[in-house]
Amino acid sequence: MTPRLLRPDQPLRLVDTYPPSAAARQAIIRVEDLSIVFDAPSGQVIAVDRVSLAVAQGEFVSIVGPSGCGKSTLLNAMAGLERPFGGQVLMAGEAMRKPRPEIGMVFQQPHLFPWKSVRRNIAHGPRALGKPKAEALRIADGLIEMIGLTRFASAYPHTLSGGMQQRVAIARALANQPSVLLMDEPFGALDAQTRAVMQDNLLELRERINATIVFVTHDIDEAILLSDRVLIMSAGPGRILRDLQVSLPRPRSSAIVAEAAYLALKRDCLDLIRSEGRRAFEQMEIKT
Amino acid sequence: MSVGRRSSATERLSVLVAVLSVPAFTGMWELVARSGIVNTVLFPPPSTVAVAVLEWIRSGQFFADLMASLARVAAGFAIGAAGGIVLGILTGRFRLVSSLLSPLFHILRPIPPIAFVPIVILWFGLSETGKLFLVVWGVFFTVWLATHIGVQKVDHGLIRAAQMLGTPQSQMLWEIVLLGALPYITVGLRTAVSISFYTLVAAELAGAFAGIVYRIEIAQQNMQTGQVMGGLAALGLLSFVADRSFAILAERAVWWR
C-alpha cells in the first residue's frame, strides 16, 4: 500500500533556497529525497516527506520545527537507526543502513549505562571498538577533564544532576572521535539555567573539536545561537521549509540575543513557523 | 517535636513486642502441651522438640541430612537459574527464538513441579538425577519468565546508545541486555529460591536416603512427633536463611543502585 503523497509522478520538491554551492560539493552528510513512513493504527503516516539536504564538513546545522514534525525521525535516519522508505542518507559518501561508530549521537535523555561509572561510560565506545582498556580509560579521562567532571569520574550516573549526566553523554559520544555528531534535543529536558550553561559549553566545545554537528531542537533561540545554518521544518508531513544562513560572528555567547542581526533572523523564523503552524493546525482541524 | 518523641516511643514498643513474639508463642505452646488438654504424643511441647533436635545433631545425622538437602537445592538452583537466564535473554531479545520456545514454555510452566513426581520416579528411579530434575524444573520456568520480561523492559534508549557506540552483538546481549534486565532477574531468582525448597520437599518425599524432609518422613513413620516438628523447624529456618542471604546478595548484584 503506497501512501498517496508518494506518487512517483509528482515532481520532486527540494529545499527551495538550498544553494548547490561549494558547501554541497564537499558535503559530509547528504540526505537525498528521503521519505520515512510509519505504520500507525489509522494507516500509514508519512513522518518525513522527500527531504533533501546537505551538510558541509565542520558545519553546525540545526533543524527546527514543531513537535511531531519528523525532525527527530530525520535525525534517526542520519544515525542509521531508522530505515528509509524512499531515498537515502549518505554519510561521507556511504549509505547509512545501520549505526556506525564514526557517527556519534546524543539523545534527549542521557541514556547512560546505570551500572557504569562516569569514566567507564565514556570508555564504553573505545572499548567496544576493541581499543585496549588503558587507552580507552585515557581517552575517557581526557574527556572528563574537558567537561569539568574530574571529581565525579568514579560516580554512578544516578548520583549526578541532569545537566552533568548530559555532559557525560556528550563526552561518551565524543570518545569514538566521531566525524559527525547528531544531537536530538539534547538540552530539552533541562531547566532554563542549566540549558543556558550547556549551550555556552557546547559553543566552547565546538571550537575544540572539528566534528560536523546536526542539532535538532524546537527552540529557535538555541538554534540561532549555536548554528551556521538553521533548517526550518514543517509538520504533517515533515518537509524542510527554509534553509537560513546564520552569519553572526563567532565565537558567540548567549549575549548575542540582544543584537539586531540576531533579532531580525529570529523574527523571520518566528513568522515562518507561526504561519506554518497555523496552516498545519487548520489542516488538522479539517481532517478531524 | 512531641510527635517525634511519641513515634520513637511507639517504635521502641514495637521492637520490644517483635523480640518477645516468638518466645511468648513458644511459652504458650509449652503450657498448652503440658496442661493435658491435648495429646502430647501428637502435639509435643517445644522442650520435647528441642531434645529431639539435640539428639538429631549429636548423632551426626543432622549434618548429613542438611548437606544432602542443600546439595540438591544448590545444584538444582544453579542449573535451573543459568538455563532460565540464558534462554530468557534469547527469547526476550530474538523474536524468532521467542516464537519457537515461548508457547511451549507457557504450556509447561503452570504445571506444578510436584505433579511430575510419578513420571520422574519412572524415568530416574530414586536416583539423585530425578531430584535434581524436579528442582531444576521448578526454578527454570520462574527465572526464564522473569528474565524474558526483564529483557523486554530494558530501556530502549540504552540499546540505541550502545548501538551508536559500536557495541558488538555479543556485548549487547551479555552486558547491556543482561545488566539492563538484572533488576527483574534478581526478583525472579529470589522467587526461585522459595520454589527450589518446595520442590525439594516433593523430591525427598518421593523417596530418598538422606535429607531433612526424608528425616521428617522417617520420624513420622516411627511416631517421633518431636523429631517431625524439629525437622519442620529446621526446614523453615534453612529456607528463611536462604531467602535472607539471597536478598542481601541480590542487593549487591544490582551494585549501581
TrEMBL record, chain A:
CDD domains: ABC_NrtD_SsuB_transporters (cd03293). InterPro entries: AAA+_ATPase, ABC_transporter-like_ATP-bd, ABC_transporter-like_CS, ABC_transporter_ATP-bind, P-loop_NTPase. It comes from the Bacteria. Belongs to the ABC transporter superfamily. Gene3D superfamilies: P-loop containing nucleotide triphosphate hydrolases. The keyword Nucleotide-binding applies. It comes from Bradyrhizobium yuanmingense. PROSITE patterns: ABC_TRANSPORTER_1, ABC_TRANSPORTER_2. This is NitT/TauT family transport system ATP-binding protein. Involved in beta-(1-->2)glucan export. Transmembrane domains (TMD) form a pore in the inner membrane and the ATP-binding domain (NBD) is responsible for energy generation. Keywords: ATP-binding, Nucleotide-binding, Transport.
Automatic annotation (TrEMBL), chain B:
It is a multi-pass membrane protein. GO terms for cellular component: plasma membrane. CDD domains: TM_PBP2. Gene3D superfamilies: MetI-like (1.10.3720.10). Residues 66-250 form the ABC transmembrane type-1 domain. Keywords: Cell membrane, Membrane, Transmembrane, Transmembrane helix, Transport. It is found in: Cell membrane. It holds the Pfam family BPD_transp_1. The chain crosses the membrane at residues 12-32, 70-92, 104-126, 132-151, 172-189, 195-216, 228-250. GO terms for biological process: transmembrane transport. The keyword Transmembrane helix applies. Its main location: membrane. Belongs to the binding-protein-dependent transport system permease family. This is NitT/TauT family transport system permease protein. It comes from Bradyrhizobium yuanmingense.
